[in-house]
Amino acid sequence: MKRKNYPLHIAIIMDGNGRWAKKKGKSRVLGHKEGVKAVYRSVKFALINNIKVLTLYAFSNENWLRSPLEVSNLMILFEEILKKDSLILNKYNIKLKILGNKKKLNSTLQNQIKISESLTSENNGLRLNIAINYGGRQDILSGLKKIMHQILSRKLNLNDIKEDSFASFLSTKNLPPVDLLIRTGGNIRISNFLLWEIAYSELYFTKVFWPDFDQVSFSDAINQFKLRKRNFGK
Fold first, then answer.
1. 233 belongs to a structural domain
2. 56 is a domain residue
3. Measuring CA to CA, which of 1, 16, 27, 69 is 20 to 30 A from 163?
4. Model confidence over 184-219: pLDDT tens digits?
């Protein structure tokens, strides 16, 4: 059933794991593990509320600048989650896609991504996208390079490039535009996330750290979205 003024595609910048851990005198690794619980809650909320697409920002291109130990622990955590939860995703008809440049990830994680995506590829329920080693600028640049290659090989004409056709060269191809972008943790910035896709998104910022983001927090964001009038430049 189509619901008036309800977001079809929600994207979340999951910020605040480290500060949550510091505030409690715990390690950043534990903060990330608590953040995983918030991911489960958000996916459950999306299923219950019939949200069609949920895109989560897990690791940016710039996050490689963090300490080697933290990065290593995050990669291990990503792999463990994918290995453990792929069958559960399949059970609930969730289609998983990993956005971002996978070539920089270790081979074991790359292989697990292929397995998880393949296992859920035929599902037609919630579309769950996890951005790992992703950057909006980098994705647009990558799309532009693909287009130039097509033009130089005479498979594409410059005049054929429109907004819709350009979007098909991005890692988010076949996804609807983002209706609502949520950022947790109190920072009010986009951080190079889905720059093309959020052109007319509603933005919602909350001070709640990601590990504390729950069904009530998610409902608050949805309720704020429903109060807004979207004109799309009209």
1. no
2. yes
3. 1
4. 999 999 999 999 999 999 999 999 999 999 999 999
Set 15, 85, 139, 179: catalytic member? 15
Q: N- to C-terminal Cα distance for the chain?
A: 27
Q: What is the pTM of this model?
A: 0.94
Residue-wise pLDDT for 116-150, tens only, equals 999 999 999 999 999 999 999 999 999 999 999 99
Q: Is residue 14 part of a domain?
A: yes
Q: Mean pLDDT over residues 109-119, rounded?
A: 96
User: Which residue in the list 49, 61, 63, 90 is annotated as catalytic?
Assistant: 63
Residue 11 Cα distances to 43, 84, 193, angstroms: 12, 23, 9
Q: Is residue 232 part of a domain?
A: no
Count other Cβ atoms within 10 Å, centred on residue 72: 13
Q: Give residue 101's domain range.
A: 9-227
CATH number for position 126: 3.40.1180.10
Per the annotation, the verdict on 63 as an active-site residue is yes
